[in-house]
Amino acid sequence: MRLVFAGTPVAALPTLRALAASRHTVAAVVTRPDAPVGRGKKLQRSPVAELAGQLGFETLKPVKPNEPEFLEKLRAIAPDCCPVTAYGALLPQAALDIPPYGWVNLHFSVLPAWRGAAPVQQAILRGDDITGATTFKIVKELDAGPVFGTLTEAIRPTDTSGDLLQRLAAAGAELLVRTLDGIEDGTVRAVAQPADGVSFAPKLTPADARVDWKLPAHLIDRQVRGCTPDPGAWTEFDGGRLKLWPVTLAAGASLLASPDRSPAAGPGEARAPGLAPGELRVDRNAVYVGTGTAPVRLGDVQPPGKRRMPAADWGRGLRPDASASLT
């Protein structure tokens, strides 16, 4: 088939590579426009635009995919099908109607669970054991089109959203190519999504990534992992924003916690009245923080204007008069 691929971030790169190596022809690539980055606000191409240039594919960068010029160009290319992975813009019906086989999206959840922009983050935040990827035909309603195929992937206890997305992007690229093969061969058909089990995963904001130390430790662990690397978990310390990487349940937490289980505690967790929520304890080789249950040990941190560093290094450099808690 003759294809036009649409995608933008790093997670879409495995798909573009798989399509380039497939039996299908990539006639062009659609991606988001160059965006300003860094302090100098220098325009930078998207990861997909960079790879498309290396592979020699024509690249289209409409500000909005309903622009008449873009739609005219798409009609002139005349794709049979348009595969999509994390393009980042809503497609108008006028664009959806152009390819005879429609637009086929690779979504990083097992639909109808976690429709929306942040399915991987939400799967970790909510404590799911299993997630996956789905190929489906794009319709006007968000992520609601009929499904061609799915795969599943276990969520590991230490997975960040970045770790999990990397695995799903690689496996999902193969699923999307198999889906396109089946569409061309007439061996797969789209099946309507079930009406039950629908959940939504809106894009996470920096406000969603601020840690509430009054929560149980297991929820804080999920929040930090789910927000790593984007939008980045954080807390306030000494009047500034301290960026956080994954935490772990403190070794020997029982020594820091009350033996009485909290009603809000997760399995194996206990309250720590001796280390209040957000309260710091700086040891020689570790930094502990109190939560609503057991303390957690901080992993890497990044203070304002400084580099990422192990929490123990940060703790050794704290001023004696610095605030003793995170908020």
List keywords for this structure.
4-stranded antiparallel sheet, 327 residues, 7-stranded mixed sheet, elongated, 21% strand, Methionyl-tRNA Fmet Formyltransferase, Chain A, domain 2, alpha+beta, Rossmann fold, 2 domains
Structural description of this entry:
By secondary structure, the chain is α+β, with helices and mostly antiparallel strands. The chain folds into two domains: 2-185, 3-Layer(aba) Sandwich (Rossmann fold), CATH 3.40.50; 217-316, Methionyl-tRNA Fmet Formyltransferase, Chain A, domain 2 (Roll). It has nine helices and 17 strands. The chain has helices at 13-20, 47-55, 68-77, 93-96, 119-125, 161-185, 217-226, 253-256, 311-316; strands at residues 2-7, 25-30, 35-37, 42-44, 59-60, 82-85, 103-107, 130-137, 147-154, 234-237, 240-244, 248-249, 280-282, 287-289, 296-297, 300-302, 309-310. The chain has a seven-stranded mixed beta sheet.
Please give a quick description of this structure.
By secondary structure, the protein is of the alpha+beta class.
Helix-strand layout with pairing:
Blueprint: E1 2-7, H1 13-20, E2 25-30, E3 35-37, E4 42-44, H2 47-55, E5 59-60, H3 68-77, E6 82-85, H4 93-96, E7 103-107, H5 119-125, E8 130-137, E9 147-154, H6 161-185, H7 217-226, E10 234-237, E11 240-244, E12 248-249, H8 253-256, E13 280-282, E14 287-289, E15 296-297, E16 300-302, E17 309-310, H9 311-316
Parallel strand pairs: 1-2, 1-6, 2-5, 6-7
Antiparallel strand pairs: 3-4, 7-8, 8-9, 10-11, 11-16, 12-15, 13-14, 14-15, 16-17
